Amino acid sequence: MVLVFPGDRIRLLSSSSPEGKDGEEDFEEDFEEIECGSGAYKDENGIKRASKIGEIYVKDVFEDDVLAVDEEDEDEENDEEEKKKKKTKKKRKRVVEVLNREEIEDENVRVRLPEVNDVVFAKCTKIREKMAQFDVLVCDGKPLKTEFSGIVRQQDVRKTEIDKVIMEESFVPGDVVRCKVLAMGEGRSLVLATNENPLGVVRAKCKRCKTTMVAMNWQEMMCPKTEHREMRKVAKIDEIKDM
């Protein structure tokens, strides 16, 4: 299954079910007929997008389609006659959903709120000279049901050469970043940090063509399509192949 993030375009190549079985049916032709369900929506251009982190599934929903039958005797109003006046058939429609693991397994697991030292995933929304702003998406491996915002200050981006940190070369709006919670702010806001090797950008798109980039080292990512490189504070990966 393909993992999608909030705002990602939903694309379907084959049918899927919560049991994880891929079908052979191609949805490209009739995708416009598929309705949006939980975790999915249409933007102003009619493009289906994800509203949360999860996996894409398409399911069949059957609704009762009640059709009236010609009345033979309008004076008969008892229950038996009413049943004869109507017949019901099942009407099928298809719905695309974005489901997290708990929803897939039909579990009602309570998602706890972020705490100090928790590792969270957040999406960068704005860059300022001395800090970056984020929407916090995931805590403890589970999507948050409550909206939280966060900031990473210049001094919390990395541990070395803090005075040389340039925020625009560390994060870009749209980046998904693995952070640690340093402190709880006012309301639903968090003070975040990326000043450890496992922390930093885990997903970013090329500014030129919007292709998802790959990490080259701890401070650089590259577009596999154009080979264009961009600066980031990159989360540690198992193996780095410089080019």
From TrEMBL:
Residues 145-183 form the Exosome complex component CSL4 C-terminal domain. It is found in: Nucleus, Nucleolus. Keywords: Cytoplasm, Exosome. Pfam families: EXOSC1. The keyword Cytoplasm applies. The keyword Cytoplasm applies. GO terms for biological process: RNA processing. One of its GO terms (molecular function) is RNA binding. GO terms for cellular component: exosome (RNase complex); nucleolus. PANTHER family: 3'-5' EXORIBONUCLEASE CSL4-RELATED, EXOSOME COMPLEX COMPONENT CSL4. This is Exosome complex component CSL4 C-terminal domain-containing protein. It comes from Bathycoccus prasinos.
